[in-house]
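FIELD: query
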Amino acid sequence: MTTSFTIDGIDVVTLPKVSLHDHLDGSLRPETIIELAEAEGIELPVLDAEGLGLWFAEQSNSGSLVEYLKTFDLTCAVMQTREGLTRVARESVIDLARDGVIYGELRWAPEQHLTAGLTLDQVVEYVQEGIEQGIVDAAAQGQMIRIGQLVTAMRHADRSLEIAQLAVRHRNNGVVGFDIAGAELGFPASKHKAAFDYLAQEHFPVTIHAGEADGLPSIESALYDGRALRLGHGVRLAEDITIDGSDAEATFVTLGTLSQWVKDRGITLELSPSSNLQTGAIAAWGTDILDHPFDLLYQLGMTVTVNTDNRLQSGTTLSKELWLVADAFSYGLSDLEAFQQNAAASAFLPLEDREALADAITEGFIEAVQNSR
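FIELD: result
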């Protein structure tokens, strides 16, 4: 059952939404993990769905990205076969549609799903098969959704060019963009120059995890070496913003050259509030949603979006994340619509499709208000 998160008398679940930063291997249903693990003989720390969901949440609340990432050993373990990949992808799409998402991009790393003998091309095809099944099943329930794959390379490995070529090879089979993810500190985008040069030559869009577990140099490398159109998280861009004055009379905000560049060029920040707390990405500012620099970035005119990152690990949905920031910063429907319009404009889709998506969001918000009267 979907939990209700109400803003201005309207359930956020009923609003049309766009999800840009959502990891496929972080979106599994606990009951699915249990069933797949049993079939594959994989040992689990907890054997009931509710308890397993709590286990993931507890393991993820470490304050460290490195520790947080260890939970993916288990989710990836049950995603090594055609059955596992298609089922997880199908259910992930259905869950997004039930949450009111009308367009989503699911990112995942094919190189982490080869232990059962599948090839890189096969795993991409099987995930796409599951995505298409999920779209059909959602439509049967009256929920229309469109999904693109973001093929991801692990930044600590040496297969990024191969994975970039894989992504381009499947650009007409559901793959809409490329990403690098994993342990950020010590593994800047510059280490994957060959991959990013190739993607630029192929006119293929890139988003890069940066500004989560590392600071401004990582963001700079993502923009310069990776030609990133979007920043995965990017929350630590706030380190390049200086706030002077604490009294009510005068507060001066100064942007550094990097943050000014990101603002002026409309480079999208894929912010994930709950995840940013769990991984310690906002530790410099505090340990509560209220401490998140989301509102600062928004008020300064940055292209901010709200995302889940990993629905399982954070025990969240996109509606919940939107409600959390709205509750923390006293946002109304107009703010939530602005975040969705930012996401629609930043989607890795053709211009005409992005414009149609923007229209659907506008119409959906108007309809929601009218229905609430």
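FIELD: remark
The mean pLDDT is 95.
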